[in-house]
Structure formats: structure tokens, C-alpha cells
Design a protein that fits this description.
This protein is an alpha/beta fold. Helices cover 39% and strands 16% of the residues. Bound molecules: guanine. It catalyses: (6R)-5,10-methenyltetrahydrofolate + H2O = (6R)-10-formyltetrahydrofolate + H(+); (6R)-5,10-methylene-5,6,7,8-tetrahydrofolate + NADP(+) = (6R)-5,10-methenyltetrahydrofolate + NADPH.
């Protein structure tokens, strides 16, 4: 078994991103600028947004955080997005999900100018991605493709099983792996909460991408020898053993599954770090007007 090492790949790519950001600053006198909107005080979201801001600063981007209490109205949030859309100093806008129940995430997603939608969640970006046109690719799937490339994982003709069909990971990931690109050209199966016998499919997977949000959901008896495993799980549990007070668990039973896998991502130290890279690369591409000239 070999590790798909998110720490190694993300550090390497961050150096490249920082060099590109420095070029932009020298050429234009400004830094790529990402704005994150955070509503409420969800523990996970707080952590992820703080990490996004920190990583922006680390590569020489400007980052801004717009905060709202959980009772902000949908209208106020939509007005803020319109304001950010119109601000020429901003290259990328993300609204951290999930949002409180009284706010429709689809409305917010569609309100973001697709040319600043560095999450790649807007239907225009999703549609363009499916057609293999220039677009912002959702950060986690994008990060996963960068990792597969870095380790030259063969994907053409393989059976890729994606467990989970979320807008953020499973659904865009399944599109990318089926596209006529590298990585891609897989035969893709998407399993989800209504799939009766998930094991039947995972047992046949050459590449298994798991984004279902359940600790140790995939066990050794569910995979075949030599499988490539991408664990997107970010299951936080309180712990007295770590400084943060939390311990992170994947969706895959690493100890068991790594005995059979040819390649596998650890948690932490895998996909989570690559998600940030996807976001930074999209923000850089936006600042360079590479997707929408
Ligand atoms: N919540 C979980 N992942 C993401 C992400 O990539 N972007 C946003 N905006 N919210 C998220």
C-alpha cells in the first residue's frame, strides 16, 4: 500500500501558487482576493473557513471574511452577495455551506456571479464542467484530480465507484471521472442512501471515492485487492487527546482497508488539504481571468 499524501502534494502546489500570486502582484499591484461568507457558528464551518483564510494569506492572497449570525435573513444575504459581485477588487466569493434552514442554498449559489464562483457550485460552472469547457471545478473534486495526477494513477477504462451524491463532492466527482479527460474516462457508478447493496458495487471498484459522512463506513470486506481509495470523510469527534479538542475520522476504516488497497488517502492529511488547493487554484485562475477572459 502506498499513501496518496495530501500534505506533500498540497505543500508542493502551494509553492507554485505563491509564485503565481507574486507575479500577479508585480504585474498589477494587487493580490488575488477571496471573500468568504460565514453564517452562524457551526464548529466545522468555523474551522474550514479559518483554514481557507489562513492558507490565502500563506500564499500571498488577500482574504476577507464576512460574518452573519444564524438569524440573518435570506434577503440580506442575497443583497450582500450582489454587493460582492459588483466589487471589482474581489476575484472569488464563497458562501460556506451548510446554511441555516430558512435560507435556500440554491438561491444563494445562483446569486453568486459565475465568474467569481470559485466553489464551482453555480449551475453555469457545473454545466460547463460537464461539457469539458473552461469552468471553476468544485474544490474537493478538483483537489482529488490533482492528487491522482501527481501520483500518475491510471483511470482510463477503470471502474470508479463514488459513494455519495452531494452537490459539493459526489455529484461533481462522478462527472469528472466520466469525462473524456485525464483523470477520467472511467466507468462510473454512483452509490447513495437508496442503493440497496452498496457492497456489491464497492467490491468491483478499481477506484473508490467515498464522501458519505459516516465514520468507518467502508470496511475491508467491501473492497477488492489493489483498489485505489479516496476518503473524503471529515467526521469530527470530540477528543481529549488533541490540542484542538477534536479528532478527525474518515469514511473508510483505514486500518483494514489499507491492507488491501494499492493507494489510499489518510485522514487527516489527505483530501482535506487538497480541497484548499482546489479553492486557491480557482481563485488564482479567476484573478488571472483564465476561466472567463
Ligand atoms: N461546505 C463543505 N465543503 C464546502 C466547500 O467546498 N465550499 C463551501 N462553500 N462550503 C462547503
Amino acid at each position: 500500500m502506498e499513501l496518496l499524501d495530501g500534505k506533500y502534494v498540497s505543500e508542493k502546489v502551494k509553492v507554485e501558487i505563491a509564485a503565481e500570486a507574486a507575479k500577479i502582484l508585480a504585474r498589477t499591484g494587487r493580490k488575488p482576493h477571496l471573500v468568504a461568507v460565514l453564517v452562524g457558528h457551526d464548529g466545522g464551518s468555523e474551522t474550514y473557513v479559518a483554514s481557507k483564510m489562513k492558507n490565502c494569506e500563506a500564499v500571498g492572497f488577500k482574504s476577507s471574511l464576512v460574518r452573519y449570525e444564524g438569524d440573518v435573513s435570506e434577503e440580506e444575504l442575497l443583497n450582500k452577495v450582489a454587493e460582492l459581485n459588483a466589487d471589482a477588487d474581489i476575484d472569488g466569493i464563497i458562501v460556506q455551506l451548510p446554511l441555516p434552514k430558512h435560507i435556500d442554498p440554491e438561491k444563494v449559489t445562483e446569486k453568486i456571479d459565475h465568474r467569481k464562483d470559485v466553489d464551482g457550485f453555480h449551475p453555469i460552472n457545473l454545466g460547463r464542467m460537464q461539457r469539458n469547457l473552461p469552468s471553476f471545478i468544485p474544490a474537493t473534486p478538483y483537489g482529488i484530480t490533482l492528487m491522482l495526477k501527481e501520483y500518475n494513477i491510471e483511470t482510463s477504462g477503470k471502474h470508479c465507484v463514488v459513494v455519495g451524491r452531494s452537490n459539493i463532492v459526489g455529484s461533481p466527482m462522478s462527472i469528472l471521472m466520466a469525462r473524456n479527460t485525464y483523470p477520467g474516462n472511467c466507468t462510473v457508478t454512483v452509490c447513495h442512501s437508496r442503493t440497496p447493496d452498496i457492497k456489491k458495487f464497492t467490491l468491483d471498484a478499481d477506484i473508490l471515492i467515498v464522501a458519505i459522512g459516516k465514520k468507518n463506513f467502508i470496511t475491508a470486506d467491501m473492497v477488492k485487492e489493489g483498489v485505489v481509495v479516496i476518503d473524503v470523510g471529515m467526521n469530527r469527534e470530540t477528543s481529549t487527546l488533541t490540542k484542538s479538542g477534536f479528532k478527525l475520522f474518515g469514511d473508510v476504516d483505514f486500518e483494514g482497508v489499507s491492507q488491501k488497497a494499492s493507494w489510499i488517502t489518510p485522514v487527516p492529511g489527505g483530501v482535506g488539504l487538497m480541497t484548499i488547493i482546489g479553492l486557491l487554484k480557482n481563485t488564482l485562475a479567476s484573478a488571472n481571468k483564465q476561466v472567463y477572459p
